[in-house]
Amino acid sequence: MKLSPTFWAWPLLLGALAACQNEEVTREGYRPIYLSRQEATRVFASPARPLRQTGKIYTIGRWVLVNELYQGIHIIDNTNPSQPERVGFINIPGNVDMAVKGTQLYADNYTDLITLDISDPSNIRVMSRLENVLPQGNWTFPNQTDVVFECPDPAKGVVAGWEKAMLTNPRCRR
Amino acid sequence: MRYLHLFLILGLAWAGHSCASDSFSVAAERTVGQGGSMARFAIVGNTLYTVDNTNLRVFNIGGEQPLAAGTVPIGNNIETIFPMGQNLFVGSPTTMYVYNVTDPLRPVLLSSLPHVTGTPCFRDPVVVQGNYAYATLRAETRNCGNTVVESILSIMDISDLRAPRAVHRLSLTSPYGLGLRGNALFVCEGKNGLRVFDLSNPTAPAQRSYLPEVKSYDVIPLASALLLIGEDGFYQYDYSDLRNLRLLSKIPVTR
Fold first, then answer.
1. Domain boundaries, chain A
2. What is d(CA B82, CA B87) in angstroms, rounded to the nearest whole number?
């Protein structure tokens, strides 16, 4: 008896369907929002701006520094605690922490440690940058737990945040 | 004697002048600033220490630019670092670690005191004054399994840094940062306000006031004012009367 080509086709077709089910799973999860290295390391001073999402505080002399979560640092002249004055803002993408010695401000810029000269608050400049010396920290995975997410690919840039998305075969979970 | 007076007056005038000058003048003397209890960066002398989830990282900042000088593995879920003299107090959900940095680039572990046994359900800044360390532990529901946990303020006797011991604990609601100065202890309770304690007895803080409406994340008590950061803004208080904090100013958050 000669088997028709359709006979052979059936198992192949079923196999292909099964493979689809195994490999083509679409689920809701989190996808990294990437920033180019150039964008992620753009540090600059700008005029004072309103506080929005406050982070940590730091003080030296008559100055108070307030972190704007993942955005940078507000500079406040606190000569008179009854009338503190916002005098400027330092844009530092990914910033959370800071410390000052003398006229030098040390801050995290994602995974880089940067040193800023703050001797003149109206003319702040980056003095040095140590690349990739701080951990990925909050950036390696989304904040949420019991979720799937697209594994970050360092080649695509710096992970600046996470967005909800339909993901095909997400390989990372937490 | 006359000259001595003149000298003093000149000295005071000079001090006043340098305070009022228009740059980071105090900073110019290479002094180190002060962070809150939630800080993960701390400077001692010419060294910057940072903590991340598992490590203490050491940077030599004595030269032109910082140099990475090594990494010391600590433990898990490390959150905060508080410098005091030649020691670093590192907070983690389960343990307080004390490192000595007399040899700045080679921190030496003096002790590690477990707060509680069990799962890491906590967030845990630590501050230090005299012979005592104060840590808040915030119970979180996630990852806690069936363990019933309570948010607390833990008071530890650190007179022997090699053998600190827990001496007292107080129940809290949802603590974040904390700060102390003299007899005043402030505990941030996040959305649940700010608690003010009298520390006349360092092992038995007595609550003097509670500001439920002040959402607070961290504090720095200065001689001149209490600096407070919270999700609604940056506040400053006169705390000379612990029963009645007086608001000096507020820079509100704009949404």
1. 37-130
2. 8
